[in-house]
């Protein structure tokens, strides 16, 4: 029983990370209409940026994480203007190919700048808490709390502000939103910024727990895609629910089934959803 | 009777775009579908051609229930359509557009293609011949090798009619075929429609240009807010109170030809 | 039948030139590079069919290559199967796998296909890495038996191996060419250019995509089998995303949707990387942006660009000379129809060029009709 609850706890931590990454992905998918395959590498860059600020400038963890998120947000805007906007005139296929090119470039860049070896970020507080036979580290608690705060912040932004509701409208129904005269260009830049910032935040949060390495974005993007498809493209609650669902499935599945194939659970779920309900669990399904 | 709908309906979310529509299209006659903007005319065409799955009701074509058939099966059964915004294979030549249009009536498989069998040569030749025949019928023969992007709006309309014709349909659905063309071109298209019907194909068209509708149609169906509000020969429909009311508030090109 | 012999001269010359390579090129390393270029080209021909002709982005295509390679390797090593039997099984396995996957892969929007195939590629790579009992994991498989003899012909010499792979390359080119200029090819390209329009003219779109996927997997799997037999050792990296990326790059450089593109692209890029050693270290750093720039500025690649220029030049010179449009009339129409491909008519070399140019434009996605029907119908 303890093992089970422990894995549930771990799943919640993992789910928080997945959720932030998937939210960024689903927002961009909504505004641009295409999947950004480089999203996972923005996540990866967020971790490296945090590392950079901590290591090079000797900043404390929190300012580093925040700075990293800002840097990534800016990077998101730059990429949107430099890559995604120009190529959007082409077919959807070309946009996807471009984002694949970008993805591999970013990975190579990271290896070039920082080397391919695994790096480590010190947690701000290395404490570990034990209660009711369960173990949770301070950082893990931080992850859950920070993720929840960010998600609530995002929800407030999307629901309560004009810009936010425009972004949400765009994510839910792109063409309808365009018909109503929403300026896609500016929203697109903002969305990319938010998306990259969220990914960076997720990476910064998990960096003290997992290690930092150039390929860390690859697995995450796969999971994020699986999540977004399962939850339904453009659906915010869908992304969140599916993220936690997947994380729990991985956590429990990895423990009780084969550890090596834990990563495949995401894809098995993806295949299952595509086979049964391709529009995702939380969309209305046209 | 070539096509019949019974209580046909389509809702999106809670909104009913088409509701409870019963209509018939008679073989060999020209039927027009009219109504103010947003009345559900294109939705109806999308339902008939299989692009939308009905939320309720049935569609019967030549005695067969085609309600749940996918788009390509409907096309095979003999219903062809054009689209409101002209849809063609843009960067290809007119000829290339039409050659593939006849594909559905050919029986070749990948082995025929790979081994370049006599059957394949025969079928490809048939497609090319049909393509030229359709272009001649539609009056655009000299455009065969021009890319679609290089021809005029009216010529594109004719090409999309030719594309529909090359699928050897029994029923042709035309969605605002005269949209964006001048009166002279409109008259030309009207003549083409007449020619199509004479050749044995039933035509059902959506139009806003009232003159064209009154001149051509044997039978008119009027939609408003997704419901059928009137049906009958032009003379009756033009005097129908409900129809007049529906148009008073809307935008019609009663003056346009 | 009127036959446009002019457009066949250059390809024939090339084919013949290819036959003389082992005689002319003395350096064994150069031969090796060329052979590898051929193998990659075959794999890219496979990708071209699903992506170039049918417009579906398969992001897991390296998985098929790996599947082909490992099937050949494992059957030869563990079952002692003769090479050609193993090859046949490899191709068959790829066909069956792609057939099965297609039932899920083609549900709803085309973006899902890219995501799904990405996932499949990752799964295959992952399994090849982790199932150590079967595949030896990251240590890979070595001492894979080479090409078995066919009758009296054995493939012990480099030259013999060259000709064998060359033959397979010609096969891949033939399949691509005959498919493209057939009704099947036209059907696939209609699907690529506008699915909704294709449906409305009676084309069963999913069936077409499935067929394209299967042929595509077969060709790329074949390349994988040849890779295993030629190189003799094999690791899971053959199925990695990097390989898929390379295939994409070769295809885009060469000219997506064209018949010459895969060969040109594979050759130029893979040969370049072999000889410009400095590129090898910075490969992804350079190729990543190159791919992005290609999609923005040169989506039609080299072959596509060539056809466009040629078409423009022909049209311009025809206009200058005041040449009339070929007016077919009824008799002319039948004459044109005579040919097994409409392009093979004298004086209609322009048409074949125009057709290639427009196909290149369509394949590279600079046409944009796709979204239009969707908007209307949705």
Could you walk me through the main structural features you see in this protein, from its secondary elements to its overall organization?
The complex is a heterotrimer of chains A (286), B (257) and C (378). Helix content of chain A is 74%, strand content 3%. By secondary structure, chain A is mainly alpha-helical. Chain A has a two-stranded antiparallel sheet. Chain B has 2 domains: 1-78 and 169-257, Rossmann fold; 90-168, no CATH class. Chain B contains 10 helices and 10 strands. In chain B, helix 3 crosses helix 5 and helix 3 runs parallel beside helix 6 (153-165). The mean pLDDT of chain B is 90. Chain C is globular. At the B-C interface, helix 1, helix 2, helix 3, helix 4 and helix 5 of B face helix 7, helix 8, helix 9, helix 10 and helix 16 of C.
Level-1 CATH class name of the largest domain in chain B: Alpha Beta
| Second CATH tier, the architecture of the largest domain in chain B | 3-Layer(aba) Sandwich
Q: Per DSSP, what share of the residues of chain C sits in E-state strands of 2 or more residues?
A: under 5%
Q: In the CATH hierarchy, what is the class of the domain at 27-286 in chain C?
A: Mainly Alpha
Secondary-structure element order of chain B, as H and E?
Answer: EEEHEEHEHHHHEHEHEEHH
* Rg of chain B (CA only): 19 Å
Class of secondary structure makeup of chain C: mainly alpha
The whole-number mean of residue pLDDT values of chain C reads 82
Helix/strand order of chain C: HHHHHHHHHHHHHHHHHH
Q: Tally the helices of chain C.
A: 18
Give me the number of helical elements of chain B: 10
> Which outline of chain B best applies?
globular
Describe the global form of chain C.
globular
Indicate the proportion of strand residues of chain B: 15-25%
* Helical residue percent band of chain C: over 70%
Average pLDDT score of chain B: 90
CATH topology annotation of the domain at 27-286 in chain C: ABC transporter involved in vitamin B12 uptake, BtuC
Biggest interface, which chains? B-C, 59 and 55 residues
Helix/sheet category of chain B? alpha/beta
Summarize the structure.
Chain A contains eleven helices and two strands.
